[in-house]
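Slide 14.
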Amino acid sequence: MLASLGCREEIAEAILGHMPEGIVGTHNSYSYDKERHDWLGRLSKHLQTLAHHTSAQFWSLLSYFQKFFAHF
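Slide 15: predicted structure.
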């Protein structure tokens, strides 16, 4: 999901705790703490938005069916 939001691969891998292999893993000791914090915040907001829209759709659909079946 991070990739779909535009997160760079090396940051997503750092969030997952994956260490790069080979020369990159040996010489790049940067932990991406600031970037991980930023992207986890973005992911949290995205998930909250999805949950809100899903919940709103559910209640709208439930209201529709309650009104529909009230006529029977």
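Speaker note: The CA atoms of residues 15 and 36 lie 6 Å apart.
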